[in-house]
C-alpha cells in the first residue's frame, strides 16, 4: 500500500519490479463491478495494472535479492552487496532530493552520490528482511548469518542502524545456555521473523537454524534479571538471546527422526513450517503448531510432516481473512497486551493457509483451527460417540472443548445441520457435571505464559500424550514435542494472555461443569469485539452548515450484525436444549442441607444419599448461574437490536435530542456498561427515538410495536403506554381548540395513571408544564405517590419522628417526596417567572431590531395566575404528607405570609410538629409566633418572642432581639386587655424591664462599635453582645466599665436606680474630659459647640432627675474648664439655659459657688470669674425677661437686686480698686438700673 497523499486515490497498491539494471514502481488499481461491493473487498473487484511506470530508477548494477515493504508504504531492498536499500518516493522534487531515489542505509544517507564500483565492502549478501510494523523495527539476515537491527523511529518515518550480531556470537551464546546440545544444531540460520507486540511484549525476533532450532531475541536491555521497558515507545538498543526452543526429536522418549538440512522456513503467530531436504528432488515439510495447547502450564505443540515431491523454493503465508475487521489501537506508552491464542478468536478468523512454491508447481497447505479439527473428527467417525472425540475433550479440557463445540452447535449454515446435532450431543456427553471441589488449586508455572503457548520445560512430561494434526488432512495419534531449554536466571515472565469471557468461580465450594464454563467462554468470545469499546464517540459534522459536534456510534453495522447473529444463535441453542439445564427436582424436594466444605468430610465415609444431596446442591448452584448467564445473553441481544434500530434511524440525530448530561454519560459508557448498568441510558435513547417520531407528527404505534418485539425487557408495555400518552401531549400542544386540547390532555393523564413504577414522573410533569396542564401535574404526582406507597407507610414514618430503624418507612417517605418534588419544582419555575419584569430595558446582544417575543413564553401575570390555581388545586387534596411538602416549600421560598393565609386543618399540626422537632430553627419559631398572634393566642406568642430574644446564637442580631421584646410587650399588653391576672402582669413587667436593659445593651454595642473593630478585643465583645441578652450587672462590669464607656455607665446606673453621688459626679467628669480630649485639635468655638451639644443631649435624658444630673457640680466643673481654656464666660450658663434649666435656679447655684470662695479662682488668677459670669447671666435676664415666668418675675428681680447689692459691697471692699474691679462694678451698677426700670415697669 503506497504512502498517503502522493498518488491519486485510484492507485491502491504499488508493484515493485527489480532487475539488475533498474527498479520500477507500477500502480495497481481495483474497479468495483457494482455498488454492492465495497472498495476494500478486493476479492470481488477487478485488478488493473497501470502500464506506465510511476517511477523508474537505476539499480547501479546491484542485484537485489529481497523486496519488503512496511504497512505505511516504505519499500526496502536487500542487496547482494550486503547493503540495505530503500526506495524513497515523494510527490514533488525537493531542494536536495528527487521524487524517487535509492538510499543505502548500510553506509550513509548520501550513499546515492557514491558510485557502486567504489564500494569495497566484504561480500556477504543480504538474503532476508523482516519488518515489525507494530514496533517500527526492521531486521536483516545475511548469507553468513549476521543479523542487523534498524530502528525506524516511534512514528516509523526515520531510519537508524542499532546493532549487528554475527552468527558466531549467536552460536556462542546459544552454547552457553544449552550446553548439552550439539554445536552443529546452531549452525547456519535459514530464516528470521519479527515477533510483533500482538504476539509477545518482550520477545521481538525469532531465528530458525538449519536443524529447526528456534532462537528468540529481544531488543530491550536487561536490568536486574528482568527486561527493562516494554512500552510501545521503547526503542531497540541491542539484540540479545533470551530463549532457545528445540525442534521435535530431542527428548529421551522421542523418536530419532528430527528435521535436518532445513533450507526454507516460515514462522507466523507461533506456527513454524520447515522444509528439510531429503534429497535433491524432494523435501519433507515439518509443521509445528501450539494452538491445541493454549492454556497449558507446560509449553507444548503438535507436529505433523508431509513429503513434498520437489524441492521447495520459497514458503509464504496466505493471511487468514478476518470475519470482523480488526481495530487499530492507538500508539501509547503502555505495553500492549498480546492477542489471545487462536482458540479464542477461531470463530472470527478463517483458517490460514501456506503456499509452497517449487519447480513442479505450488502446494497449498491449510492449518486447521480447533473447531475445524473437531468437525473433521466427527465427520470421519460419523458422530461424537467415539474415543477420538473424547480424546479431543481430554486434550483441550472440557471448558475449551465445549466452547469449541458451541461454534458448531450454534451454526446456522445449511451444510452444518448434521454437524451441529453431533456437536450438541458431544457438548452434553463430554461436558462433565457440576460438583463440589475436593482439591486445592495448584500454582501457575511462570514459564507457561512466556510465549503465550506451548512448549514444556526440559525434563517435564506433558499432561497428555494426544497430538492432533495442524494441517490438512488431519492425522491422529501424533506425539507432541516436549523439548525446550530451561529458563536461566535472566529469564522473565510474559504478560499472561486472557480472553474476554474467561470465567471466575462465584463459589468457593462448587466446581462448575465444563458445559457452563464453555457457555461462558463462548459468550465472552462472541461479545469480545464490542465488550470494552465505547458505544459512542464525538465527530464533527461535514455538511454545508455550521460545524457541529455530533455523537455517532462507534460500532460498524457489520460488527453489530455479526455479534447479534452469534448471540441469537447462542440464545436459540439454550432455548432448544433447556431440558438439559434443569436440576433433579426430586432430589431437591427431599431437602438439602447447607453447603459443607470438602475438608470437613475428608477421612470419613460418605453415604450414597449424602453424596446425591451434595450433587443436587452443586447442580442447583449451577442452574442459578446459568439463569444469570441466560439473562445476560438476552440483555445483550436486546441492546444490540436496539443499537441496530438506532443506527437505522440516524444515531446522531437521535442522540442530538438527549440531554447534555446523558450525552456525556453515553460517551463514557462501553458496551459492557450499556448491557449491565445502562437501563436508564437505553430508556433515554428510546425516549429520544420516540420523540423523533412525535416531532415529525408521525404515529408511534409502529415503532412501539417494533421496540416491544426486539427489546421487551427494556421497552415494556408500560413504556408503550408512555409513548402513546406523550404523543397525546404533543398533539394537544398543536390542537386548534381549547376543548380538544383539554380532552387530549385528560386522556394522556388517564394513561399515565395506569402506569405504576416505571413512569419517569419528572419528564411527564415537564411536558405538562409546557402544555400548561398544571392540574394534571398535581393529579399525576399524587397518583404516583399513592402507587409507590399504597399502605401509606410514609405518613406513619413521619408522625413517629422519622426513626432511622424504620427502613421500609424511610424508603416509602423518600418515594413520596420524590413525587411531591415534581409539583414544587414547577411551582419554583412559576415563582421565578412571576418575579420577572419583561418591560425592563435590556442591553441588546446584536445590532438590529429587537427580537419578537416568544408566544409560548409565560408572562409574569399568567405565571402568577397559574401558580395560584395550582396552589388551590394542591391544597384541595387530603394527602397530609403532600401538605407537609407544600408547607416546607413555602418555608424554603420565604413565602411565610402565604402559609399563614392557608386555612387547612393541617397547618396547625404542621406548626406544632415543626416547633417540636425544630425548636432551634429560627424560621420555624418566627413563623410560630406569627401564627399564634394571628389566631389570638397572645400569651403563647409573647413567650415565643421572649424565647427568640433570649436565644443564644449569632443568627439573631441585637436589634432583632429588641424587636422581639417590643413585639412581646405588645402581645402581653393585648393579652392583658382580654384577661388580666397577676401572673400576666408580672410577665409584662418582666418583659418591659428586659426591653429596657436590651436597649442599654444596644447602646453599649453601638459605643463599642464606634471604636476600631479590627481589634480582636473589641470584635469579641461585639460578637458576645450580639449572641445573647446579658443582665445589667454583667453589662456594666464586663463591657461598660472595661471599655470606659462613661455614658453607658451613667445610663446603666440610672436604669438600675443605684445612686452614688461620687460615682455620678465622676462619670459626668469623665464624660466632659473625654469629649474635650477627643476635640483638642479643634478651635475654641468648635469645642464649645460640640461639648454643649453633648451636654444638652444628656441633659434631656437626665435633667428631670437631680440625683443623676448634678447641676451644681456640672456648672462649677464647666466654669473651671472654661476659665482654664479662656472660653467665653457666658457659654456655660447659656448651655444649661438651652437644656431648659431656669434662671432662678442657675442664679442660686452661681451665687452659692461665689459665696463658697473656692481657692481655685485665686490659683488660676481669676478671682472675679464667677462675678463676670453672674453679671452676664443677670444681663441676659434684663435683656430678655421672658425667660422667667411672669408670676415669678417680680420675686426674681428682688433676688437679683439683693444679690447685686451684695456683689457691689464685695467689689467696693477690694483693696486698691484695680481697673478690672471698677469695670465689673460699673457693669453691676448699669445692670441694677436696668432691673430697677424693669421692676417699675412690672409694677
TrEMBL record:
Domain Nucleoporin Nup133/Nup155-like C-terminal per the UniProt entry, residue ranges: 513-1212
Signal peptide segment: 1-23
InterPro entries found in the cross-reference section: Nucleoporin_Nup133/Nup155_C, Nucleoporin_Nup133/Nup155_N, Nucleoporin_Nup155, Nucleoporin_Nup155_C_1, Nucleoporin_Nup155_C_2, Nucleoporin_Nup155_C_3
Tree of life domain: Eukaryota
Keywords associated with the record: Disulfide bond, Glycoprotein, Membrane, mRNA transport, Nuclear pore complex, Nucleus, Phosphoprotein, Protein transport, Signal, Translocation, Transport
Recorded GO MF terms: structural constituent of nuclear pore
UniProt membrane topology term: Peripheral membrane protein
Any single GO CC term annotated in Swiss-Prot or TrEMBL for this entry: nuclear membrane
Entry's localization field: Nucleus membrane; Nucleus, Nuclear pore complex
Chain segments carrying region Disordered: 462-508, 839-859
PANTHER family found in the cross-reference section: NUCLEAR PORE COMPLEX PROTEIN NUP155 (PTHR10350:SF6)
Protein name per the record: Nuclear pore complex protein Nup155
Lineage per the UniProt record: Eukaryota, Metazoa, Echinodermata, Eleutherozoa, Asterozoa
